[in-house]
Amino acid sequence: MPGNLSKFVKSSCKDYSHKWVDSCISAAMGLGLDCLEESLKIYSTVYIASLLINRRKITKDVIIRTILGILQSSAFLSMTAFNFSANICALNRILGGMHVLTVSFLPSFLSNLVAIIIEKPARRTLLCLYVSNIATETLYNMGVWRGYFPRIPYGSAYIFAASISVLLYLHRAKRMDQDTVYKIIRFVIGPYEQFQNSNKKSEHLESTTCTESLNSNRECKRHTYNIIFKSFQIYKEIINNLKNKYKHWSCPHPHSCAHYILMSGTKLFSYGYGIQVAIQLILQSQQIFKRPKHIKNILFKKQYLNIATFLGAFSALYKLTSCLLRRTYNKDSPKFAIPAGLIASIAFIAFPNNTLALYFMWKGLHIIWNEGVEKGIFPEFKWFVILLYSFSTAILFHAAILEPQNLRSSYWKFLYRVSGGRIAVISRSPLEIFGMNSSKYLKEVLIRTNTSNQRTFTF
Fold first, then answer.
1. What's the pLDDT tens digit per position in 319-356?
2. Distance between CA atoms of residues 349 and 341, nearest Å
C-alpha cells in the first residue's frame, strides 16, 4: 500500500532517471533516438498494412504521403520520449528535488501535451481511445491494489454488454456509417440489422430458391453416382428447406428466421476461426515445414476456438433475440437492439477480453458525447482529445515507474521497446520513500514480461 505520498525527495535527476550518463541533454537525446528508431519500425508497419487493407492503388503521390505520414508519426513519438526525459530533469532542477507527481506523471503530461500536436489530427482520436482504454484498466488495478474497491468477477463482461447494447441501438436508430466501430458491428450482425432496414418489410426470394432447386435437380440426374455432388446436393436441400421456413413479416432479412440465425452463427464462427488459422499458418510456415506435427497445435489452439465461438454465438444470439422480439410484439423497433445486445453478450464469456470491452465502452462514450455536442446538450471542448490523451498517457507513465505491477504487460513491453530498455533501468531506489515498493514490483514485472534492467547505453 502506498504511503508518504506528500514527501519531497532530495535526489538528483542523474541518480534517478539517467545514472548511466552525467548530461541531462545526452540522456534526453539518447532516449529520443532510441524511440525514433523503434517508431520508424512501428509506423512503417502500420502505414503499409493500412495501404494493403484499404487496397489503395500505389501511385507516386500515395507513396510520398505514406512516407511523410511515417516520418510525422515517428517524430511525434520520439518527441514524447525526448521531452519526457528533459522534463524530469528540468522539474528536478527547478524544484530542487522530486515529488510523487514530478517523478513521472507531470513530465509525461507536459511532454504529451506538446508532442501530440505534431501528430496528424485524424490520428489523435484513435490514439486517445487507445491510451484511455489502457489507462482505465490501470486506474482500476491501482484502486484494487490500494483496497479502494474489490475486484469484480466478470467486470469486463458487464462493461461489454452495456457498451455494445448502446452501440447496437444507435446503429439501428440512426444512420452512422462514418465511424469504424459500425463497420465492425455490420461485419458481426450483418447488413439487415441497421437503420435503413429497421422498418422495411422484406420480400422472400422464393423465385430464386425455386430456380436453384430446379437447376440442382437437373444436375443431380446427370451426376447420380457422384458422391461429392450428392453431398453438395444434400447440403443445398437442407439450406433451401431452412430458407423456406416461416419468417415473420416484420423481419428485415430475406429468408426464414431459422436460416438467418443458423447461417449467421456458422459464418461468423468460420470467419473467426479460419482467418486466425490462415494467418498463423502463413507466419509459422517455416516451423511447420520443419515440424509438420506443429500444424495440429495451430488447428486446435483453444484461443482461436474461443474467439470463433464468441463471434458465432454473439451473432446468432443477437439475431435469435431480435427475431423473437419481432414475433412477440408483431413489429420491428430499434429498441429491440438493447435486450438483444444484452443477451448476445453472454457469448463474451467464451472470450473475456478487457481491451475489447473498454474499446467499445470508450467508443460508446465518444459517440454519445459527439451526439450531445451536435444537439447542444454538451459543450464542445476543442482541446478535450489532446488533454484526455495527455492525462491518460501520464497515468500509464506514472504506473510504469512507480507501480509497474498495475500496468498491462503488453504496454510495459511497448514502453520497454521504444525506450531501448531505459524504462526498466531508471532507478527506483530514490522512490522507495513513497512507500510503493517500486523496486520489488519492478523485479516481478521483469520476470513476468521477460525483460531486463541490465542494459548499457552510450547516451
1. 999 999 999 999 999 999 999 999 999 999 999 999 99
2. 14
Q: What is the pLDDT of residue 422?
A: 94
Helices (H), 174-284: 180-189, 206-222, 227-243, 257-283
Count each helix (H run) and each strand (E run) in the chain, helices first.
19, 2
Calpha distance 327→321 (Å, rounded): 10
pLDDT at 277: 84
Contact 133, 355 (CB under 8 A): yes
Cα separation, 65 vs 83, in Å, equals: 27
Residue for grid cell 531506489: 429
Segment 241-300, tens digit of pLDDT: 666 677 788 888 888 888 888 988 999 999 888 888 887 887 777 777 777 777 877 788
Burial 326-339 (b: 16+ CB within 10 A, else e): bbeeeebbbebbbe
CB-based contacts of 169, cutoff 8 Å, min separation 6: 334, 335, 337, 338, 341
Please state at what angle helix 60-95 crosses helix 105-115, rounded to 10 degrees.
150
Among residues 113, 137, 123, the alpha carbon closest in space to that of 42 is found at 123
- Residue 37 vs residues 1, 423, 455: alpha-carbon distances, Å: 38, 16, 17
For strands 8-9 and 98-99, give the pairing.
antiparallel
Residue range 116-131, pLDDT digits in tens: 999 999 889 889 999 9
| Contact criterion met (CB below 8 Å) for 273 and 282 | no
Which single residue is written with the C-alpha cell 528540468? 90
* 33: CB partners within 8 A, 6+ apart: 78, 459
- Rounded to whole angstroms, the Cα distance separating 2 from 437 reads 8
d(CA 70, CA 74): 6
pLDDT for 223: 47
Cα distances (Å, whole numbers) of residue 91 to 87, 299, 409: 6, 54, 29
Beta-bridged to residue 8, according to DSSP, are 99
Residues 254 and 206 sit within 8 Å (Cβ to Cβ): no
DSSP helix/strand/coil, 201: coil
At residue 11 the predicted structure's pLDDT band, cuts being 50, 70 and 90, is confident
| Average pLDDT for 361-387 | 88
**Strand, coil or helix: what is 380?**
coil
Distances (CA, A) of 418 to 34, 172, 381, 411: 7, 42, 31, 11
Q: Which residues contact 224 (CB under 8 A, 6 or more apart)?
A: none
Find the helix or strand (DSSP H, E) in which 99 lies: strand 98-99
* Average pLDDT rounded to a whole number, residues 203-232: 47
